[in-house]
Every structure is written in C-alpha cells, then in structure tokens.
Amino acid sequence: MTDIQSMANAIRFLAIDTILNAGEGHQGVPLGMAEIAATLYANHLKAAPADPLWPDRDRVVLSNGHGSTLLYSLLHLAGYDAVSLDALQTFRRLGSTCAGHPEIEQHAGIEITTGLLGQGIACAVGMAVAEARLNAEFGGDLVDHRTWAFVGDGCLQEGVGQEAVSLAGHLRLGKLTFLSDDNHITDDGDTMLSISEDVPARFRAAGWHVQELDGHDIAAVDAALAAAKDDPRPSLLACRTTIARGLPRLQGQRGGHSAPLKPQDREEACAELGWSAGSFEVPEPVRADWAQAMQRAATDYGDWQSRHAAHDDRAEFDRWTSGALPEDWAGTGSRLRAQAALEPRATILSSGDVCDALAEALPETLVLCADLEAPTNHKRGRHALTAQDRSGSYVHCGVREHLMGAMTDGIAAHGGLRPVNVTYLAFADYERPAMRMAALMELPGLFVFSHDSIGVGSNGPTHQPVEILASYRAMPNFRVFRPADAIETAEAWEISMESRRTPALLALSKQDALPVRRDGAENLSRRGAYMLPGHEGARDVTLLATGTEVALAVEARALLAEEGIRAAVVSMPCWELFEEQDPAYRAEVLGTAPRVGVEAAMEFGWQRWLDRGDAFVGMTDFGASDRTEVLYRHFGITAERIAEEARGLLGR
Amino acid sequence: MTDIQSMANAIRFLAIDTILNAGEGHQGVPLGMAEIAATLYANHLKAAPADPLWPDRDRVVLSNGHGSTLLYSLLHLAGYDAVSLDALQTFRRLGSTCAGHPEIEQHAGIEITTGLLGQGIACAVGMAVAEARLNAEFGGDLVDHRTWAFVGDGCLQEGVGQEAVSLAGHLRLGKLTFLSDDNHITDDGDTMLSISEDVPARFRAAGWHVQELDGHDIAAVDAALAAAKDDPRPSLLACRTTIARGLPRLQGQRGGHSAPLKPQDREEACAELGWSAGSFEVPEPVRADWAQAMQRAATDYGDWQSRHAAHDDRAEFDRWTSGALPEDWAGTGSRLRAQAALEPRATILSSGDVCDALAEALPETLVLCADLEAPTNHKRGRHALTAQDRSGSYVHCGVREHLMGAMTDGIAAHGGLRPVNVTYLAFADYERPAMRMAALMELPGLFVFSHDSIGVGSNGPTHQPVEILASYRAMPNFRVFRPADAIETAEAWEISMESRRTPALLALSKQDALPVRRDGAENLSRRGAYMLPGHEGARDVTLLATGTEVALAVEARALLAEEGIRAAVVSMPCWELFEEQDPAYRAEVLGTAPRVGVEAAMEFGWQRWLDRGDAFVGMTDFGASDRTEVLYRHFGITAERIAEEARGLLGR
C-alpha cells in the first residue's frame, strides 16, 4: 500500500526547495493541492513516463499555471527524465524545462502552455473533445483516456473558464475532470473581495457532476476521483483547501500565494509535517511509492501496444497521431486548386468548398464554429459531434469564441486531429488570447474568418475589422492570409494544412471576390506575394493589394493602361511568407517603380512594403453602416481612386 | 388605462416596416420582446425624451444589438426627436441615426454602442456601478435610477456575459435588471445545439433575483418588473418568448431571426394581430397611449429639476456630469509633474502615485482592478466600492478583465465618472474587444497596464507582451503611451484626463525606469515625441526609443560620445500625438541623420519612423523566462547593442 500522504509531502518539499533555490515562485498551489495531485497519480492517472508521447495517455493540465512547481514536482517524482533535478534547480531560468509558467514540452510531460488564467481549462475541453472524436473513429482499444485539469478560482472567474464549463456540460464530456483549488485566497486577499457565487451550484446548472470535499482528505479525494470516473457527466471536484498548507507562517494567508520563502519556512514545514529529508532529497521509501504508483499508471501500456500492433486501422491511426498528411496530399492540393471556382464567389464560400472536400480527403480535420453555420458554410460535408454522437467532425461551439480558440489549441496539443476554427473576423479579438497561445506553442491551428472588412456592409463598424489584420501581422509565428479569390483560398488551406508549427488565419470575404485570372497549376501563395499575369516588361507603377481589393487593382491597371501607364499588380496573400523569400525574389516582385498599397484596412504596417512618397488606398478610421458597395465608394476604395493615386505618384 | 398590447404591436409593425423598407434586418428580437419592452416603458421606465441627457434617467441597453429595430421603434414611439420617421426609413444607411447595430447617440436615446455579443450587458454592469457610486456621492435626490438591459441567449453564452452575471451578483447591483429573450432559437437553429444549461439556476448561483415568466403575458411582465424593483439583488426576468411573434410564416422558426421579410408577411401579421394601420403609421389611440406612458416616465423630471436647483452640491454634480475638469486642473498637472519621482522607480508605481493624488484632486476617478492590487498599487488613497459600501472609488473586479474593460466603457458612457482600468498588459488581449469599443464610441477610458515587456521577468512569455503595443497603435482613435519615467507617466495621465473623445492605454514597467533627466515644467509628452536634453547642434545619428528603453538610448549616447559620435535621443511616449504635430516639428525631432529605433517589442509598425537602411533594436519573437536583466541581455536590448547599430549605420 503506497503512502499517499508522504507522496504528497514529497511534492510539497520539492516545490519548496525549487522555489527557495530560485528565490521566487508561487508556493500556494503545490502546497495546497499536494494531496489531490498525489492521490490522482497514485490511484487513477494513466500515463507512461518512459513514453511521454504515448497517444493514449491521460492528459494533465495545470490551468492555474503560476503554481508550476506542482506540475514540475509531479513530473519529477513520476519519473519524467526531462524534469530532472537539474531542471528543477534551474526553475525560472533561460533554457530550463521548468519555466516560470508551464510551457509545452510534451516529451517532459508538460502537455500545454498555460499562463493567462482560464485558458488551461478551456484547452482541456478541447483535449476532451479530441479524445471523444478519436475514440469514436478508432474505438476504445486505441483511444480511451481522460483529461484532468487543476483549476484555481481565478480560472473560474475568467469568462473563458465559464464558457468552458457551459460547453463541457452541454457536450457531456464524461472523461473530463476539474480538480479545483478552493482556498478562498486570491491575489488581493480573500476571494470574497470579488466573488461570492456558489461555484458548485454554477457547475450543476451546467450539467456537471459535482462533489464537494476536503482537498487534504486523501480518502475523500480518492473516492471522489473514482466517482468522477464512473459518472457520464464531466466532473468537478470542488476541493476545500488551505493555501500553502504545511508552511506555518503562510498557510491560509494571502501571503501563501507567492510571498518570498525563507530557509526558516522550510525548517518549520519539516517540523510541521515530520519531514527530515534534505534539500531536493526524496526519501527512498517515498521514491519507491512513486515508482509503484507510476507502474500502476502504466498498467495498460503494454496491453495497448499489443492491441495497437494488431489493430486494422493502425496505419491510419498512426498517421493521424503523427500529424502526417495522407500520401496523396499533393494530388489533393492540385485538385483543390484546379476545382477552385472561377466565377465571382465570396472567399468564405470558397473556403467552405475546400473544407467540404477535406471532410473526406483529410478526415482528421475537426471544424469548430461559433453559431455561424449558415453564413460561414463550413458544415456541408460534415455532421455534428454531440453529446450523443461523437463521430461528427463539426462542433457547434455556441457563441463562445474565446473558448473555441482555446479548444483549437487544446485539440492541436492533444494531437491526432487538425482543428479548424470558424467565425467572423471581428471575433478574432475575442479569440486573440488563445490565438497568441497557438503562435507561442507553435501549434498549427487554422483560424478561418469571414466578414473580413467593410465588406460586412450594414451591420456596421462594430462588425467591420479595420485593424485586425495588422494586429495579427504584428504577432510572431502567425501567418495572416487574405486570399484574393478561390484559388488563393485553396492555396492558403493547402499551406496551412502542411504547417506543423505555425498557426494561420484566413481573412475571407462575405461579398463576392473576382477571380484573379490565373490557373492554379502552381501554388503561388507559397511565395507570399506574386505578380499577377497581365503585365510584362517594364512598369511605371506597382499596385500591391490583398484580398478582395486585388480585383480593384486589376481594374485600376486597365484604367491606367488606357492612358499608357504600365501598372503591375502584385497580390500579397501572406506577408509572412513573402518576408521569408530570398531578397532577389522580393525585389523582383516589388520592383523599383512607385507603389500604391491597397487594402480595406488601416495603413499601419504597410510601410514595410511602401517607401516614403508611395501611396496607400485603404481605411483611416472605423467603418460605417451601409451596403458594401456604398461603403467602398464612401471610403474611396475604388479602382478610380487607385488609378488617381498612381497618376499622382507619376506626376500626371 | 393604456393599452399595452397595442403599444407592443406598434413596436412590431414599426420594426417590420423599417426592415421591409431597408430590405434587411433582424425581426426576431423586436417581435419577440415587444410586450416586455412596451410594459417597461408603459409602467416602469424613468426617462424624459425631451431631455435625453437628463443625468438621472434610467439607462436602457440593447445587448442583443442585432435587434436594433426594437430600440429604434421604442425610441421613436417614446418621442425621441432624433429617431424620426426619416431616421427609421434610412435604417442601415450611411449617416442614419438608425445604423445596423445601435451606435451611441445619447441625444437620440441610444445609450451605448452594442455590437459583438455580451458586451452590452457588461457595459450595463458598469452603468449600474456608476449609478451606485454617484448615488453614494450625491445622494438619492440627484441620483437614483436604474439600468435595464435587453439580453439574448448569445450574450449569456459569451464569457464576458458570464463575468457580468458573476460580478453584478457579488456587488448586489439591485438597480440592474436583465430582460432576457429566451426564444430557444439561435443562428444555427435550436439553442439546444450548443447550450443546455439551466440559465435561471446559473443566475441564482450568482446571487441574482430570478423570475421565470411568459414574455408575452403583459400582466406577468408587469408584476415581474415591479418585483425586480423591490428586490435588493440584481434581477433577471427570464422571459420565455416566441421569436418573430406575429409573423405566421416565421414565428418560432430559425428563420424568425433574420430571414428576409416579404410584403405578404406584413399582411399576414396584420391579420394575425388585428392591425390595420399602413406602413410606418401609428394609430392615433396608440400614439396617445405612448405619449401618456412617457408622461408617466417623466413624472419625476420636474421634481428632480427643483431638487437639483436647490442642491448644495449642484456645482460639483454638474461638473462631474459634464465631464469638465476642476478649475485648478492646470495647477494639479504642474504639481503632478513637479512631484514626479526623480529616483529610479517602476512606472507602474509612478502611475500609482498619480492615481493616489487624484483620489482627492479628481474624485470622479473610479479605479477598476482585476485582482492585482499589490503589484499595481493603485489603491493607496482609495477604499473599495462593495455591496455594502458604495462610497469607494476602487472596484475589485476579480479576474475578469474583459468585463472590466466593458465596465470601463459603461461607466464612461453613463457619465459623471472617469474610469481607470488597471491590470497587466498581457491581459490587454482579454480586454481588447471592449477597448476597441471605447475607441469606436469615442469614450475617454484610461487603461493602465503594468508589466509591459520582457521586463516581466521569469513569469515568462505568456505574460510578456511583444506585439500588444503594435496591435493598439493599429487601432483608430486610441492613444498608446509608453512613458519613460515618472514625469512622462504623470504627463500621460494629465493628457488622458483632459481627453474627452479618445481612450488611452498606458504601458508601464514592473522594473525600475531611470529618469530621463529633464524638469517637468512643460508637459512635453503632449507633442508625442521630443528630443531629450543632453544634445545640442548637429547630430550623426538619432536614437528613437520608448519607455524603459529610453534610458538605454541615453546610455548608448554616452558610449557613442566617447567615440566622438554625436547622438540625439528622442523619447516617443505617444506616436499618435506625434503624428498630429505639424510636419516641421516632426522633421526637426526626427532629424535627417540615420536612425536607430529601440523598443522591447516587435518592429512591426516602426517602419513609420525608420527609413530603409535604418536599424531597430527590439524583439523578433516571443520572450522567455528569466530575470529581467538576463532577458534584456539575452535578447540584445542593451546600450552596447544600440551603440553598435549606430556605428554600423555610420560605417564605423
């Protein structure tokens, strides 16, 4: 019989030693949740630390990420090699596996980067959805695991956390369990300063299985974890805890959260808890208990390997989990480009065409949409994943965009599926914190947005992005695509599905885009920008445009040609990819003639491609409410205006 | 006795006529909520359409903003001159008061811009807090009004809406009432596609007074509104409604939301509802009932004017509600600059100094903080506004940043107070949708952010902004300040408090900033950028920097001086203000020498101030976890590196 209390105390002292050694850190969580964590690992978790990437492992998320030493202590004690003593002793230092907040390193058992509050549990919902979908696809022999999330009160105050609670209950994600740290202490002091709601009642209202218990009572925690596994609903263990428990000076106090520890605190904790081991030392019997616990955790591992080796779908399962594309992917890409509509068509609908085709050609795609099925049209070839039917590849996420973004991260981090996130571009602001996390974690989520400009029309300026493109172009490791037509839309999908470490955003139009009149034999969007056919030889002016405005530039070129002015039109679907091209190609495309930049958005950032004295045709303020064509004229984003600016640059 | 049913039907037909005339619009809300709205206006609302800006009017918010014709019909029937028949007949057209979604025009009775779901009810929480604070300050004789918010299911799915529910219950905002439109229909179809939670139970868990009723039963609505007014808790009227009620073809259907209306729909509705008036025609008895209702609504108006005329605090009340600064404001500004710390000090602490001083000098400031009292230090001279004590000027908003941003908007829109929003800059991504609304509405909220760069240190990249400055510089009508020291911090506050139509963001440091060594006699930040003392005459190179990096530029100047290189240092606390200066001043400051831009952030956008061939010292990717000084060295943001780049530009 393992001594779970000592296992818990081992967590406590590793956390204390790690924080003391670093001179900073948050002791509140690891000391307050030690019994909960130890009981989970001792008797319930499924994991194989020797094979951290085992696809059927349980996923553990530390949503209260400031308590990172809880996770690091756990992973060290559980035997993850990458969380060595050296890693603990370099906590919060450059290059350490043990960063201030957990940062995704799955080979070390760190499943996801947490950080800003609330996102962890929202990612956990994505992980649980991924498990449900994969379980339905490949069966319980290959996929049958749980998602456990450590949660602080802050995560549950955040809106994204509330969205997570609501949708997880709706989808009856029975393999998802939140372990909440109800310590009544927040950074400002007592949680009563800012929250007085009945949290268990709130979860019950959302259809959760809720158990309230003492988070330091190991038997109670053990029973509650067992009950959680038996219940078909997602489970909340609402654990009443004492923050920083074991530190006589700080436990139950506001300072328990992260007040600097002193060596004397450790001495007092040793006396309080009957601990005599030295710094970073784990007594041998406790190590043995941890080893035994992890042996139990890996019980199923060998059987799984046998089942996997004999499974008919093994090759496809391995392909999905590895993230590799199907063998005939190049053919799929060519076909998508060849089939792209050549009549005027909204790029969001062209994107729907691709999404439809990929329902079969890339069945690991999982589409998430925020209550905009009809206007975004990405469900055609798919059916919904619901509480009753996990086989669908489309999730009705409701009007919960921030959650949907975090679920995208969670699904991508889980592995096995390619998440595609669909809503209007104005809501990219709601999703931004999660999209930033995708960029930071180097997860290849695809974020498809419709209604990308004043083209939205009369719904007005609240729904018309003018600065959102720039706001994402400013973000590291994010590709912003604004395709000009159906071919570029297909190309953006193709490139994004091939991406392994960079998320992408597609800014697509509600209104019809005109085809840019080239064939799709080669994916030209891979170069980020390219000169459109229709111009050869020397040029007097270069028109740089993106998205639906490329058609205006083409029209302006014709107007200018009538006057003998030779204009080249450059379509720039993805600045980031263009930036990666060799300088000679960039110079060739940009040319040396004066330039007019054209985009129905703010100029901010365009200076990268325009020299002083060049012109820009776009927005200078928020939009307005009227029909699309009226707005384009009102804001002066027209072929005539482009031609006029070009003439101006040439002094004509 | 007024005929409320006919008043409701008048709303219905005005909405139908407005939508038919425009050829587009959302009929679901106005037809589904007509009885609720008519009963509110007939028997409960306090308003004086002849004086739309009456400070003690009830505030009405349409959070489900797509149903804007509900609000426009109401305002027209209630007698707001600006919502004329002509305005209704230009619905969704440029320049009309009746834009696609409500856009703030308080003289027309439109209290706030709604738009993206969830923000309206969050703004309403801000309005109710403003009322509570002003009521405590000036007493019920001057301030005693309610906030009513029409709410759709989408608003309650959004995280920001959930945050609003939680905090409103905690603060016991008894004068806040949500009128919810529970029609079971969402854009995708039945709400059961994406939500199955027990919404009334969720509100009860948060301490709300909840009544469930038939939203078409006028007597029930009337009784519930009366009970809501009597209860000390915020109230939810959970109204079961039929979407698009009155339109036989569409009522209760998914298409009820916004499917295009046909003339025949109107004919069928006339038959269904026994209505015979022509298009845009309101039968005289119904007009009379509306007039009588609004006479009741304005019952208190005359008394209030008398009380106001006789009130001792009248002058101060008028000053607060007009948004005017105190007469001695210029003196206050000088004093703040003169008292600014000249020793090294974190700019977030310098901001706290200003905030402390303004607790007395500008008592209409109301500070909102998201559970970061200690690290942001803006509570010193203030006490908390709580459920029991409304006299405080500091609100513990909990870990609910998006709500806090929207509350800032709501408080500013309410009038009478100057909201100041305080948290870490990383959370600006959570607040972004609300901050965008402040810019769009031209509301002067001040958003104070600490931890503005890799200076955050070992909490790591999740908490280290690198692209957030650029993302707000891209936004229209927003001022981004990044002060270099205590004087610039005081200046940024001074400028922001003087602003009437432009919100501002202060990006402030956790780590000590060095003083830029000038006196504060003149507010130089008003120019947006200026040359620091310490250089005269010709220059070989110009170093442009912001925030804590200005000190590095000063240090680099000294290094370069040793080599005989003459460097000028330009501090650029606010690009937007610099952009507004006359070209001659800008040219003088920027000079013609080569330039090095310095900012611990991405280069994106800096091309505005740098020519090709100029250099930039800053970030090229996300940050990392280690101590501040280690990170600055690691990422090469040092005086040595700046000097090196300067030398490189000069070919030395």
UniProtKB/TrEMBL annotation, chains A, B:
SUPFAM superfamilies: Thiamin diphosphate-binding fold (THDP-binding) (SSF52518), TK C-terminal domain-like (SSF52922). Its cofactor is thiamine diphosphate; Mg(2+). It catalyses: D-sedoheptulose 7-phosphate + D-glyceraldehyde 3-phosphate = aldehydo-D-ribose 5-phosphate + D-xylulose 5-phosphate. It is an enzyme of class 2 (transferase). Keywords: Calcium, Magnesium, Metal-binding, Thiamine pyrophosphate, Transferase. Its EC number is 2.2.1.1. Residues 345-516 form the Transketolase-like pyrimidine-binding domain. GO terms for molecular function: transketolase activity. It holds the Pfam family Transketolase_N. Belongs to the transketolase family. This is Transketolase. It comes from Ponticoccus alexandrii.
